[in-house]
Every structure is written in C-alpha cells, then in structure tokens.
Amino acid sequence: MFKSEFNGYDREEVDAYITRLKAELLEQKFSLLESEKKRLDNQKQKEEVEAKEKNILKAIQVFEDAQKFQEEGSRSMYALKIEQMTLVYRKFEDVLKKIYLLHPELQDDKELAKTIDELDDVLSKAKGETTVGVLTSPVNSDNDAMRKLLSKMQEYRKSGDAPKEVRIARITAKSVAPENESSNGFDLKEAVNPKMGLAEIMKAFDFFNNEE
C-alpha cells in the first residue's frame, strides 16, 4: 500500500492518502447536505399543496351545507352556482397538477382519470341544462347536477387511495374564465345571497385569496 522506509511507511504517501480521504469525506458530506436540502424543499412544497387541498375540501363542504338552506328558483342563481363549482373544479385540478409534479410516480391510476372525466362530464351537463329543467327540478333531487358534482368530489375526498394518473395536457388545455372576477379572483358579493350568510361563511376561508 505504502512504500516502506527504515522507520515505517513513507510519510508523504501517508499524508497524501489522508488528505485524499478527507477530501472524499467532505464531498460526501456536501452531497448529503444537498440531498437534505432538496428533501426539505420537497416537503415544504408538499405541505403547501396539502394545505390548499384541505381548503378546497372545506369549501366543497360549505357548498354542500349551504344547499340545505339555499333555494334556487331562477336561471341567474343557477348560473352563479355553476360558476362557483367551476372555480372549485379548477382549483381542484390545480392542486392535482402540483401533486403530480411532486410525485410523478402517481401516473398509472386509471380510476382517478375516470373520476376526473366524470366530474368534467357532470359539470358540462350542468351548464347545458335548460331553463325548464332548472326551474322544475327540486333543489335537493337526485337529478340536481350540482348535487351530483358535489357527490363525486366527496367520493374523491373520502377515498383512501392516492391519485396515480394525471393527464396534464388535457387539464392545462382547459380554460374557464368566470364572469365578473374581482381582484382576488372571485366575486362572492354577486355569487351569494347575503341573507343566507354564505358570503360570511366563504370569507372564513382564504382559499380564493392566496393564489400563487
């Protein structure tokens, strides 16, 4: 390993070997620090995504609870409800995209893709309902498109399986611009009847305000 001299190994070779070992050790420590930094960054991003997802699910629950005391008797009110759910669906998609960016391995779940398609289909059908259907269908009937959409979102929330498939191109290509946007992205004053207290409920959540 080292050249031998009268009083032991060659000192220069030993010193060079020790120096090389120290350099390798420092390089390994630096690599570990870099890995830890990336891990912490990813953890922070994951927590931010989870926080936004939690706010979305809370908002969905608010919409569902609000239906118990909110009456819809005109096309304008129905259109506003569609607008609300469209925004919820858009934010739902945004959260999914961020989750997939953090976890690209979750791209093989066909069940999730089916659920997203069903949500999109229900929302599209709700937008296309006629005035007669809107005015004659009971608010809480099984045919209420909004209840179907809420039900689908609740099924996703309650399922224990993590989403595994994403179709980024399909999601990114969609663009739904809500009418009468305010500076924070959503006009609650026009969307909710103040007498029902829904505006106050929604203001308790920051889910429409802190867009990145």
Give a nutshell description of this structure.
With 212 residues, the protein is an all-alpha fold. The protein has helices spanning 11-66, 75-102, 110-128, 131-136, 145-158, 168-173, 188-191, 198-203, and strands at residues 4-5, 8-9.
Give an overview in words.
The chain has 212 residues and is an all-alpha fold. It has one domain. It has eight helices and two strands. It has helices at 11-66, 75-102, 110-128, 131-136, 145-158, 168-173, 188-191, 198-203, and strands at 4-5, 8-9. The protein has a two-stranded antiparallel ribbon. Strand 1 and strand 2 (8-9) form a beta hairpin. Helix 1 (11-66) runs antiparallel to helix 2 and helix 3 (110-128) packs antiparallel against helix 5 (145-158). The N and C termini lie far apart (59 Å). Mean pLDDT is 65; it is low at 130-139, 161-178, 181-186, 191-196 and 205-212.
Mean of all residue-level pLDDT scores: 65
What fraction of residues sit in β-strands? under 5%
> Radius of gyration from the CA trace?
28 Å
Helix content: 55-70%
For the biggest sheet, the summary is: 2 strands, antiparallel
How many strand units? 2
- String of helices and strands: EEHHHHHHHH
Distance between the termini: 59 Å
Total domain modules: 1
Helix tally equals: 8
- The geometry reads as rod-shaped
Structural class: mainly alpha
Strand order in the largest sheet: 1-2
Q: Uncertain runs with pLDDT below 50, 5 residues or more?
A: 130-139, 161-178, 181-186, 191-196, 205-212
What does the oligomeric state look like here? single chain
